[in-house]
# Entry
Amino acid sequence: MTDASRQDEAIGFIRRQTPLRPAIALILGSGLGDFADELSEPVTIPASSIPHYPASTVEGHIGQLVFGRIAEGTSRSLPILVFRGRVHYYESESLRSILFPIELARLLGARYLLSTNAAGGINRNFSPGDLMLIRDFIDLSFLRYQNRNTSAKTDADLPVHDQLADRFYFSRNVFDSRMQDIIRQCATQNGIKLQEGTYCWLRGPTYETPAEIEMLGRIGSDAVGMST
# Structure
């Protein structure tokens, strides 16, 4: 079965549960799951009921897709899809698994993705509980892009242009500058202290040693995690 057919089955199931087409998708990290309770007209779909949806096995990640609206009754009412819990790479050892929910959000109509997590602070100017807007990232997962052609077992099995695309993936301007400005404005308007910095992604699930944290700080990491 191809990725597209798996996605089609999942989308078909979801659309039988709700007609809502979300404008925004939001991934809730550890400790933030209660935000889903703030939605109006919520429709909750257990992730385990969706065909081909990867299972979350981490405590605190319930595994639900919650469709609803925020700011209901105002001119800014927005349809939103909230992922209550996420799948981490170390749970499945598959990039396809962690990208599957994001692909579903796109196919359901979401134009923007906001991803949150609980991360370890490295920057000594940060305090526990600070919010950090990610400006850039360091990928120390050492994972190469997994091509969608599931029949290709090695680079030699791929067309030349796909081999080069895999090796020289362009990672500049990953984050939407307009969305970042909106987040900054919201933080200022609501008196929220907002840090900014570089996030470092490691595979997990083990935490870093003190020596590794020191190294990550020296190469420019402000926070580290195994999620976003």
Q: What stands out?
A: The chain has six helices and nine strands.
